[in-house]
Write a structure and sequence with these properties.
The complex is a heterodimer of chains A (390) and B (254).
Chain A (H helix, E strand, L loop, with lengths): L6 H50 L3 H13 L5 H17 L3 H14 L4 H14 L15 E5 L2 H13 L3 E5 L2 H10 L4 E5 L7 H11 L4 E6 L1 H9 L5 E4 L4 H14 L9 E5 L3 H13 L3 E5 L2 H10 L4 E4 L8 H11 L5 E5 L4 H9 L4 E4 L4 H19 L1
Parallel strand pairs in A: 1-2, 1-3, 3-4, 4-5, 6-7, 6-8, 8-9, 9-10
Helix pairs in contact in A: 1-2, 1-3, 2-3, 3-4, 4-5, 7-8
Chain B lengths: L9 H66 L4 H26 L8 H14 L7 H20 L2 H12 L10 H30 L2 H14 L4 H25 L1
Helix pairs in contact in B: 1-2, 1-3, 1-6, 1-8, 3-4, 3-5, 4-5
The chains are: A alpha/beta (390), B mainly alpha (254).
Chain lengths: 390, 254
């Protein structure tokens, strides 16, 4: 009897063998997942090469078809997706389908907002073909986007606080997820724990900085880890946990102000230009950034509007049939000394610019429109006004 | 001189027709059984090769992940989540290590020649238990089919040939004279063959829907275009292991 296997031993042997089968299944499942992902990326790379070759041969229809099939494959690699969208956008523009092309370029820019080729392409299209329908990228949320990378309990709580305070925040719980997330969407601020299971917070910050140099990155951790991280000598700000929410919010607001989130202030801007297309395109750019816009065709109309409405900033041109730019500028300085004025003109002349500044202009932006230059001038003028008022 | 012509009775004609039908079903069933066994053996072989090649690298990766999780848990002793994560990572590393060890210990399958495959196909057709005439025949077939499967699995061609000879020389294989009884038996065998064909087709479809089969298909596709897919997978995983080792080193330095 002693040599007979006991029933419970037999059962445990069965369980062990089932368990082994399960672990093998798990390795097979992981292998299939990894390999499928890798092959998708390879397919997408192949599509890019093919599409680019068609584009170079001016076979735009073929290039678009290849891009479409590549985009359908769900490459799961946002950078490859970005390139496919860029080639498709450029092909559509070559076929004179400007709005569709611009939509593709804007989708590509959502993935990589600082890509110089894409930005250049977009500017070229806008400059060459004038005002264009409001595209998806322009219509995106103007709340500051925040990515919180921390363990679930902390990240989820912080996201609730931030969303209640006028931010558009999302949480992820690992470094890898954070890096994937910033490849898919643009974030203005990233708050990350230093110690994480898969990746050091500093490594996450460095990777994000490489692809999104404009994003503000704040690291935080317990006092010891924060101290050690500070000793590593890098540029990132590191906060000691626990950070009271009001302190964190105050800090984030200083960032959003420096990032130029005009939606917070909702400044009202008057655009004065006798050319309707220029007026409209300037208004579109400013509206997409959260400013409230109104427009006037000339100096006299502008003054009437200013007398009845609260305006934070005036953008006007120099060559206006109703009133010349310098006269309007002088008149505005006299009647509305607190309202800054930025001159937007096609005149590329140092003397004209000097005359404008001497008569109180806060900025001078040349046409054709450079969106970044315009926005920078608007921000500067509003900041100066806000400082003067406070 | 008038030579009398022996005409077939209707039941004999029906029996001949049913035998033809049974013959066709036997061939189809034998092909399907062969396909099923081949699929199972090929998949078992692929699983062994895959687990032996890729399993140890996954085990290594999981080991490094477990060390990282344990290191983090050590630096945050009051963080219950970090401690739980470390325990889960250690368990997973242990499981992966076991799976890899087991895969390495599994013996390789013998090579199967074309003549062995043909012989097995004949055996499946001749010995299939669902094609038996009666209970006595079924018992013989069941025993011999099990032995034939084993011989095929081991790649033992001479044994498979001997099994077939044994069945064909068996006195039970001789057909009786009673046409009516034979007709009933054939109809039963046809019904059984049809049912088994359905079962085998279902099993084949289930296997083809498995993750292991999908993985094998991807690897085979790569091989056809001259790629060593498993080798490339191992290389990528090794790079991942190296990168994670680097991270572990940084954690230790902190």
């Amino acid at each position: 009897m002693a040599d007979d296997p006991k029933p419970n031993e037999a059962t445990s042997l069965i369980k062990l063998s089932d368990h082994r089968a399960l672990t093998r299944d798990s390795i097979v499942e992981r292998g299939l997942r990894d390999l499928t992902r890798y092959l998708h990326v390879q397919d997408a790379e192949e599509s890019i090469n093919k599409a680019f070759s068609f584009f170079k041969q001016s076979r735009y229809e073929d290039a678009i078809a290849v891009c479409d099939s590549g985009l359908e494959m769900d490459a799961r690699d946002s950078l490859l997706l970005h390139v496919l969208l860029q080639i498709k956008g450029a092909s559509l523009v070559k076929q004179h389908k400007y709005n569709d092309g611009l939509q593709c370029i804007d989708r590509a820019l959502e993935i990589d907002p600082t890509n110089p080729h894409c930005l250049e392409l977009r500017n070229q299209v806008v400059r060459a073909y004038g005002p264009i329908e409001k595209s998806k990228a322009q219509a995106r949320s103007s709340k500051p986007k925040v990515l919180v990378v921390d363990e679930p309990a902390i990240a989820d709580t912080l996201v609730i606080i931030l969303n209640q305070s006028g931010f558009d925040a999302v949480a992820v719980y690992t470094g890898t997820a954070a890096v994937e997330c910033v490849h898919k969407a643009r974030f203005d601020i990233i708050i990350s724990e230093v110690i994480m299971p898969d990746m050091n917070g500093i490594e996450v910050a460095i990777r994000i900085r490489q692809s999104h140099p404009e994003s503000k990155i704040v690291l935080w951790s317990g006092p010891n880890a924060a101290k050690r991280a500070r000793l590593q000598g890098h540029e990132f700000e590191i906060l000691d946990k626990p950070v009271p929410p009001q302190h964190l919010l105050a800090k984030l607001r200083t960032y959003t102000n420096s990032l130029g989130f005009e939606i917070q202030t909702q400044a009202r801007i008057l655009v004065v230009n006798d050319e309707e297309s220029v007026r409209l395109s300037i208004c579109q750019v400013l509206s997409s950034k959260g400013y409230q816009c109104c427009a006037a065709a000339g100096g006299l109309d502008a003054i009437r509007l200013l007398e009845h409405q609260e305006i934070d900033l005036v953008l006007h041109d120099l060559l206006n049939p109703q009133m010349d730019g310098i006269s309007l500028l002088m008149s505005l300085r006299e009647k509305f000394p607190d309202t800054p004025v930025v001159v937007v003109t096609a005149i590329d002349d140092v003397d004209a610019a000097r005359a404008c500044f001497q008569n109180g202009a806060s900025g001078y932006v040349r046409l054709p429109l450079d969106i970044d230059q315009l926005l920078a001038a608007v921000r500067r003028a509003l900041e100066t006004r806000s400082r003067a008022n406070s | 001189m008038h030579v009398p012509v022996k005409s077939r009775r209707p039941e004999e004609a029906e029996l001949a027709k049913k035998f033809e039908e049974l013959e066709a079903l036997q061939s189809r069933l034998a092909d399907l059984e062969f396909q099923l066994v081949t699929l199972r053996l090929e998949l078992a072989d692929f699983e062994r090769i895959y687990c032996a090649k890729v399993g140890p690298v996954y085990a290594e990766l999981d080991e490094v992940e477990a060390l990282i999780a344990e290191r983090i848990a050590k630096s945050k002793p009051h963080d219950t989540k970090a401690v739980k994560d470390a325990q889960a990572a250690r368990m997973r590393a242990e499981e992966s290590r076991q799976a890899a060890t087991e895969a390495l210990a599994t013996p390789a399958q013998p090579t199967r020649s074309d003549s062995l495959r043909d012989l097995y196909r004949v055996a499946a057709k001749t010995l299939h238990p669902d094609l038996s005439r009666d209970d006595a025949d079924r018992k013989i077939r069941e025993r011999l089919m099990t032995e034939a499967n084993l011989a095929y699995e081991k790649g033992d061609e001479s044994r498979l040939r001997a099994i077939l000879e044994e069945y064909e020389s068996s006195p039970d294989t001789v057909r009786g004279d009673d046409v009516a009884a034979e007709l009933v038996r054939v109809i039963r065998r046809i019904s059984l063959a049809k049912r088994r064909i359905q079962q085998v087709e279902t099993e084949i479809n289930e296997i083809k829907g498995s993750e292991l089969f999908k993985l094998k298909t991807l690897v085979d596709d790569g091989t056809r275009t001259g790629k060593d897919v498993l080798g490339e997978m191992v290389e990528r995983l090794k790079q991942q292991v190296e990168s994670r080792r680097g991270y572990l080193g940084n954690l230790r330095d902190e």
